[in-house]
Amino acid sequence: MDTQYLKKYLEDGTASNISLVITDNSTSMLSIRKSGNCFMMRLHRIFLSAGKEVLNEMAEFIKDTKAKTPYIRKFINQNKHLLKIKPRRTVNIKTQGRYYDLRYIFNCLNKEYYRGNISASITWGKGSARYRARKRTLGSYNSHNNLIRINPVLDTKRVPLYFLEFVVYHEMLHADMGVAVNPVRRTIHSKEFRRRESIYKHYQRAMEWEKRVWG
């Protein structure tokens, strides 16, 4: 089954709009959050091979997250061998930079915008703060190890705190939303992503500063 079929099946079963994100996250294989009149659903790709009993139970779970899910649990247990289990590489986490502490920034944003739900780790990336951001890769989020990396070029007093906060907020949003699915392509920055991105309180200042410095 493809993602569009699954999305339509769940929408028909719930009579609701569903934004479906397929992930490889084996820690949180199914999560649902309501946003307005739409259910934001993150689902491990293993469910693309699920049968009707599992999908019907999933539809009931969307409507009532307190509902029991014996078929879903059984399906996961029977298919654990299909999960991508890779040896974890040791990541040297460094949150305290010369000027900014990423852990403090992350915790503040997590509390203010994400209700403390973002579980990702965060670290300064490798390289020198003198490195020019030629490719504009100021931050990244890796869903496989649930890790946010921030380019050390931002660890300087020349970069205002509100801009660094925006970069961290942006990558946390990737951790929260994942990659949306549409009929044509995987969408990294969907309309919903852009809408939520603009909620950051210094969004306009951050955009203007970035354009002025790196535009």
List keywords for this structure.
elongated, 2 domains, 8 strands, Zincin-like, single chain
How many domains?
2
Strand order of the largest sheet: 1-3-2
User: What CATH first level of the largest domain would be assigned?
Assistant: Alpha Beta
Strand residue content: 15-25%
Structural summary, described in words:
By secondary structure, this protein is α/β, with parallel strands linked by helices. It has two domains: 80 residues, no CATH class; 113 residues, Zincin-like, CATH 3.30.2010.10. The chain contains seven helices and eight strands; from the N terminus they run H-E-E-E-H-H-H-E-E-E-H-E-E-H-H. Strands 1-3-2 form a three-stranded mixed β-sheet, covered by helices on one side. The protein has a three-stranded mixed β-sheet with strand order 4-6-5, covered by helices on one side. A two-stranded antiparallel sheet has the order 7-8. Helix 2 packs across helix 3.
Describe the structure concisely.
With 215 residues, the protein is an alpha/beta fold. It has 7 helices and 8 strands. The chain has 2 domains: 80 residues, no CATH class; 113 residues, Metalloproteases ("zincins"), catalytic domain (Zincin-like).
